[in-house]
Amino acid sequence: MSRGYNFSAGPAALPEAVLRQAQAEMLEWGKARASVMEVSHRGKEFVACAEEAERDLRELLDVPANYKVLFLQGGATQHFAQIPMNLARRDQRADYVLTGDWSEKALKEAKPLVRAHVAASAADTNYDRVPARASWDLDPQSAYVHVTPNETIRGVEFADIPEVGDVPLVADLSSTILSRPLDVARYGLIYAGAQKNIGPSGLVVLIVREDLLERCPKDLPKIFSYAEHAAQGSMLNTPNTFGWYLAGLVFKWIKAQGGLAAMAAQNRAKAELLYGYIDTSGFYRNPVERSVRSWMNVPFTLPREALDGPFLKEAEAAGLLALKGHRAVGGMRASIYNAMPLEGVQALVDFMRDFAARNG
Ligand code: PMP
């Protein structure tokens, strides 16, 4: 058996070069004479590794100096709750734009903690679009506006960053961060679970504008306070050291590929290849409005549900893994994050063409 092309939505494929480096360093990491998992997070080797990862991420995303970068835990899900805890008073309004399952979940977790208001929703068209900005019901007094610029399940990705005035824009970038250049200064807070484009699960990266940390209530338990985590360099308690280290290797890998402009060119080419084939196949179908189709997650259906089983079985035998769609939408989903090479998408398209010819 050999490694296949892994289309998992997350935890997702990691660059093979990164895995090989981690493998080579597994027993003896640098001068530590131990694995990176076996040394103190406060020791000089790990602190240097953590600082380098942050520097590389700042360089990749061109993070302005007045933003803190945090390497935390809890998954993006914990931050669905932690964001209102830190950025809003309980009686304050916060605006949520619903574009799919993940923004719905973010809203649900926020509800006990803030006056969460649905500013716009695409639920009425089964989340196949992003509601036009002009239709959003925003309040300039709101604590923040929350968006999910890439909905991993539906495959809907914002074409641009919405203008929301002086209210901080908060974005769950879990499934699209590092896929292309990003204007960080347009956001108040960005958060992303690592397990798609950053590294292994169990790590969450947050990028937060410093002035927003002043909002964190002083009586919040320290472990939930972004201000406290920022003050302690994400080492209030033991961080996910292996995740942080591996994320650092991924950042170096992205830099070696040519940075985010190069990633964007590669990701665009992959997406165009796959959507281009789907749209002309007369067999497969993607329901998302063209202007907001995700570069990262491509859901598609076959003409008959009865073909799903055979498609998945044959795809796996051909080394094309984890294509089963999310239960909420059915069919298939190909997640083609940074680590998926163009050859992997080409192999998928070749297989899809052959399958359609045999089953059309
Ligand atoms: N937001 C988005 C956009 C996601 O894709 C996911 C996970 N697939 C989550 C949040 C939840 O992440 P976690 O499981 O790390 O809490």
What does this structure look like?
There is one protein chain. With 360 residues, the protein is an alpha/beta fold. It has 2 domains: 17-257, 3-Layer(aba) Sandwich (Aspartate Aminotransferase, domain 2), CATH 3.40.640; 258-359, Alpha-Beta Complex (Aspartate Aminotransferase, domain 1), CATH 3.90.1150.10. The chain is 36% helix and 15% strand. It has 10 helices and 13 strands. It has helices at 16-24, 44-61, 75-87, 101-110, 210-213, 226-231, 241-257, 259-281, 308-317, 342-359; strands at residues 5-6, 67-72, 93-98, 115-121, 145-147, 150-151, 156-157, 169-172, 189-193, 204-209, 297-300, 320-321, 332-335. A 7-stranded mixed β-sheet has the order 2-10-9-8-5-3-4. The chain has a two-stranded parallel sheet with strand order 1-12. Strands 6-7 form a two-stranded antiparallel ribbon. The longest helix has 23 residues, at 259-281. It is globular. Bound molecules: 4'-deoxy-4'-aminopyridoxal-5'-phosphate. The site of 4'-deoxy-4'-aminopyridoxal-5'-phosphate has 11 residues, from helix 3.
Explain the layout of strands and helices.
Blueprint: E1 5-6, H1 16-24, H2 44-61, E2 67-72, H3 75-87, E3 93-98, H4 101-110, E4 115-121, E5 145-147, E6 150-151, E7 156-157, E8 169-172, E9 189-193, E10 204-209, H5 210-213, H6 226-231, H7 241-257, H8 259-281, E11 297-300, H9 308-317, E12 320-321, E13 332-335, H10 342-359
Parallel strand pairs: 1-12, 3-4, 3-5, 5-8, 8-9
Antiparallel strand pairs: 2-10, 6-7, 9-10, 11-13
Helix pairs in contact: 1-7, 2-7, 3-4, 7-8, 8-10
The protein binds 4'-deoxy-4'-aminopyridoxal-5'-phosphate.
